[in-house]
Design goal:
The complex is a heterodimer of chains A (about 400) and B (about 180).
Chain A lengths: L2 H4 L1 H6 L2 H4 L5 H16 L4 H13 L35 H4 L7 E8 L4 E9 L4 E14 L5 E5 L10 H4 L8 E2 L2 E11 L15 E15 L3 E14 L5 E3 L3 H5 L26 E6 L13 E6 L4 E6 L4 E6 L2 E8 L5 E5 L5 E3 L3 E5 L7 E17 L5 E2 L5 E4 L3 E5 L2
Antiparallel strand pairs in A: 1-2, 2-6, 3-4, 3-5, 3-7, 4-6, 7-8, 8-9, 10-11, 11-16, 12-15, 12-18, 13-14, 13-18, 14-17, 18-19, 18-20, 18-21
Chain B lengths: L4 H21 L2 H17 L7 H27 L14 H6 L4 H5 L4 H12 L4 H8 L3 H19 L18
Classes of the chains: A mainly beta (about 400), B mainly alpha (about 180).
Chain lengths: ~400, ~180
């Protein structure tokens, strides 16, 4: 018998950490009271206003044919006088954001007045999905440790598995993907939660702003609800006013900006592709049919020189679009599901998924461009033809040969 | 002095509950959150004749549920987290092994589900079927977690109690 393991519970109870711990009874009582109130359905307050705001703020998604009244009462998960998004406060962002539906979200920020920030979003879906509707956009402010320090004021969006029940009496009219939206949302500090005593202003500093959007979608053989997130840098001024950083536009671009960045010349050539730790890329792109919506296309990862490589990647491929030697736009995926893959002499891996066309600046993409396909991947283990094993340390950008694509002629 | 079950439990068993959550989660701040969330879950339902002993059993169960729910949510998100933003998010077991080797640092080398299974099996002396019931998992899954956990813990702590019900795992263990 291993005594230390058997004693572990009593040792943990007697640890220094436990000795300094006291149950916050008053806080627990307060949370219990609120939870009981929600169970009883007796408290509507802010949450009910939030529900109304959701419906009012999204007129384009209201019923094609007015159905029964929208749901009344707190959104699922709402803790009485605190909208549900405050439940994210103090937690690691990785623990509180979820995703579903294989969707791709991109966002850009613009300054607004006071403690509000303007967010423009574009949501793309897999090819099998034809149209969709937006349930809502939520914001989460995260500090450098990944801890949630602020959220949007106002309505919350129900949890994915509660949406259908919550909107049981509401019909949403669909629009073709990609779905575009513009929201201006106030950001407030988590310091006020749950006591209600702290400041509502987010302290001045630099943060990441996570933009999360929840949508419904339908297609010929598929329908459901989905959610995707993306993050951008955010600066908060001394008065708690948020604004995008100067490099927010660059941050919204795909994550290979050492090689490809808006307005810059292409830094690679067919004869000088970047070292990708043995990974190689082929791409299957239609030459025409490109518009604000990308047609289906794919890339295939492989390995060179008889290597066998384990790698991770979380996205479909990207395209850097070049006009007259300068990058003028991108076709980019969202944050896809992380894939573990192995490529080698007898194995390749095809990557595909929804992608979005992102011009540099406001100009429309029209005409023919040189397109450089690429993928960001993290090789985790490489075995060369002689059986020598190595463990690459850094993510690599795997670039395929360029080709021509034509937009909207 | 308050004598309702919550006050009594907090006063007399607060540290024990914290210790349990600490052992399960391996992190003091997480343990504090787990205890608080578990107390809220437990006392939000009105129960007649609810003694502090009854409550402690409920709270311990809720601590486990809260922790496993959190782990599942975290895993779901980690699958879609951007790889460029995730460097360093996987603890290097060698670091923990190189630290002072006690039970908590040994447990810290385990994946979350492995750790919970090990705590329930070795520290609470539950049987494999009981562990499976607590974790809401199949017995085979629990045995797999325990097999991997046992191998890792044995390397750090020496031989563990024999587990007759554990299968011999062939080939590479999956976690």
């Amino acid at each position: 018998m291993n005594d230390p393991l058997h004693r572990a519970l009593s040792d943990a109870e007697a640890s220094d950490e436990a000795a300094g711990y006291t149950v916050p009874v008053a806080l627990v009582r307060s949370r219990v009271r609120r939870r009981r109130a929600v169970r009883a359905g007796g408290v509507v307050g802010v949450a009910a206003l939030a529900v109304v705001a959701v419906v009012v703020a999204t007129p384009s998604f209201l019923p094609r044919t007015p159905a029964a009244d929208p749901p009344i009462g707190p959104a699922p998960g709402v803790v009485a006088d605190w909208p549900a998004q405050f439940d994210r406060c103090g937690k690691q962002v990785d623990d509180v954001l979820d995703e579903a539906g294989g969707l791709a979200l991109r966002a850009t920020l613009a300054a607004a007045t006071g403690n509000a920030i303007a967010v423009h979003t574009t949501m793309a879906a897999p090819e099998s999905v034809t149209d969709g509707w937006i349930y809502g956009t939520e914001l989460t402010v995260v500090d450098s440790d990944g801890v949630v320090v602020g959220v949007q004021e106002g309505p919350s969006v129900p949890a994915l598995d509660e949406i259908d029940a919550y909107y049981a009496n509401v019909l949403f009219g669909g629009e073709p993907f990609p779905l575009e939206s513009d929201d201006t949302l106030p950001l407030v500090s988590c310091e006020q939660y749950p006591s209600g005593n702290g400041s509502i202003a987010i302290p001045a500093g630099s943060y990441r702003l996570w933009v999360t959007q929840t949508v419904g979608y339908s297609g010929k053989d598929v329908s459901g609800n989905g959610r995707a997130s993306t993050d951008l840098p955010l600066v908060v001024g001394a008065g708690g006013e948020p604004s995008p950083t100067a490099d927010a536009a660059a941050a919204a671009a795909p994550p290979a900006d050492d090689l490809f960045a808006c307005g810059r010349p292409v830094d690679v050539s067919i004869h000088a592709l970047p070292d990708a730790a043995g990974l190689v890329l082929a791409a299957d792109t239609p030459e025409s049919d490109w518009s604000s919506t990308a047609p289906p296309w794919s890339v295939t990862l492989g390995a060179s020189g008889g290597r066998t490589i384990d790698a991770r990647t979380d996205s479909a491929g990207s395209l850097a679009l070049v006009d007259d030697g300068v990058i003028v736009g991108f076709v980019v995926p969202g944050r896809g599901a992380l894939r573990e893959l192995t490529v080698g002499p007898d194995a390749t891996a095809e990557l595909d998924g929804p992608t979005l066309v992102v011009p540099c600046g406001a100009a429309q993409l029209r005409g023919s461009y040189v397109a450089w396909p690429y993928v960001v991947a993290q090789p985790t283990r490489s075995v060369d033809a002689d059986g020598v094993v190595s463990t690459p340390a850094s993510p690599v950008v795997v670039v395929a040969n360029p080709r021509q694509v034509t937009f909207g002629l | 002095m308050d004598d309702d079950p919550l006050a009594v439990l907090a006063r007399e068993r607060g540290r024990a509950l914290f210790g349990y959550a600490y052992l399960v989660s391996g992190d003091a701040r997480t343990a504090e959150d787990l205890v608080q969330d578990a107390l809220v879950r437990t006392f939000s339902r009105r129960r007649a004749g609810f003694t502090p002993d009854d409550a402690e059993r409920y709270v311990r169960r809720a601590i486990l549920t809260c922790y496993l729910d959190g782990v599942r949510r975290s895993q779901r998100w980690s699958r879609v987290r951007h790889l460029l933003g995730s460097s360093g998010d996987v603890a290097d077991p060698a670091v923990a092994v190189g630290a002072v080797v006690d039970v908590r640092s040994a447990l810290a080398t385990l994946a979350p589900q492995e750790r919970v299974a090990a705590v329930l099996r070795y520290c609470e002396d539950l049987t494999v079927p009981e562990v499976a019931a607590r974790m809401e998992l199949a017995e085979g899954t629990v045995k797999r977690y325990l097999s991997t956990a046992t191998r890792k813990l044995t390397d750090l702590l020496g031989p563990l109690p024999a587990l007759e019900e554990l299968p011999v795992m062939q080939g590479k263990a999956r976690s």
